[in-house]
Amino acid sequence: MGQFLRIDVAPHAVSVQRVNRWRNAAPQTLAEQAITPSGEHPFDAIANALRALLGEVQADGWPVSFVLADELTRMWRVTPPPGAARMADIEAAAGFRFQSLYGEPAAAWQICADWDATRPFFAAAMPRVLLAALSAVAQDCKLSIVAVEPRFVSAWNRCRGGVKKGAWFGLVHDNLLTLAATEADGKGLRAIRPLPIPHGADHYWLTQTLQREALLLELEAPSLLQVSGSAPAAWTKAVTNASHIPCTALQGSAA
Known about the structure:
Largest sheet: 5 strands, mixed
Number of strands: 13
Number of helices: 5
Oligomer: single chain
Structural class: alpha/beta
């Protein structure tokens, strides 16, 4: 009762965790496995690894939430065309924007979004071939899929209530900072930026990065960065330089 499996899927590894939604506790890792990436059939390697893991943990009948690494998904901002009135109008706008950003048609991707015909919104895309592979694994292992989400979306939905006005949100995972710049009123997102974290990145690097992104977006730099995941320890230490932007870890926000 109140428990489900969370399966993290990345190009190089998969893991199965048990989550209890009624207890404020970290997910319990049941099994994990590294993957040797395959250039020709990368999603087959993921599916085979998952079948092996799920056989170990006897997962038959469990509800499952798949969380996909940001490297496997795409996220972008969509501006509705003037006079958009139908769902087809904004779906087409999302598809055209996807193609202009990534240089390929959107047909091979499943696009989900907070669709809105009156103001800009964010969309996320997941490969249809990967989704089909996960569905086949779930069927073979008698799992009930309750959600499939990009890792950033999962973290943002879990943490957004704790993000303070004037702060930006960051997800740190696998040496990648997925940075979410918030609107000035604190009620929405302006941009999402995946940024590689260089070795030895300290508070100076973090502050410079936040200030640069703010300039590019024509926004005020944030007063605070709140992070989920395994952020470098140096980021969350007390600020000793008045020019640095403080960073804090969100409680209960393990990625």
